[in-house]
Amino acid sequence: MTDCIFCKVASGEIDSKKVYEDSDIVAFHDINKKAPVHILIIPREHIPSLLDMDTEKQALLGQMNSIAIRLAKEHGVAESGFRLVLNCNQDAGQSIDHVHLHLLGGRPMGWPPG
Ligand code: AMP
Ligand code: ZN
Questions:
Q1: Residue 98: CB within 6 Å of ligand 1?
Q2: Is 90 a pocket residue for ligand 1 (Cβ < 6 Å)?
Q3: pTM for the model
Q4: Where are the domains of the chain?
Q5: What is the structure's pLDDT at 67?
C-alpha cells in the first residue's frame, strides 16, 4: 500500500534499524521505544489489523510469533521475561494500520497495562 509507513519500512523506502527479515516478515527497532528492548515484527504484506488475519493468515501469525521468540532470545530477554503486544483498533491504541507485533522486554512491566 503506497501510503503506509510500515509498507515503506518493509520495502526500505523509509529507514529503520532492521534486526530480521525474510520473504514474509520484517522486524525492526521501534522508533520511540517503551522498554530497553522494543522491536516491531510485521508481515511484508499490507494487512490492516488482526481482524484481517483470519484462517488463511494464521500461518503468518505463527511465523511472527516464532520470530518474536527468536528475537527475545537474541536480545537477551527470554529468561528475564518479555511481552508480546498486538494492538487492534482504537481502544487498544493501534496507531498504524499495518499489523505489527510489539516485542517488549528488559524491564519489569506492570499488569494490567494502563
Ligand atoms: P501501535 O500504537 O501499536 O500502533 O504502535 C505503533 C508503533 O510504531 C509505536 O510504538 C511507534 O513508536 C512505532 N513507529 C512509528 N513509526 C515508526 C517508524 N518509522 N519506525 C519504527 N517504529 C515506528
Ligand atoms: Zn502497510
A1: no
A2: no
A3: 0.98
A4: 5-105
A5: 98
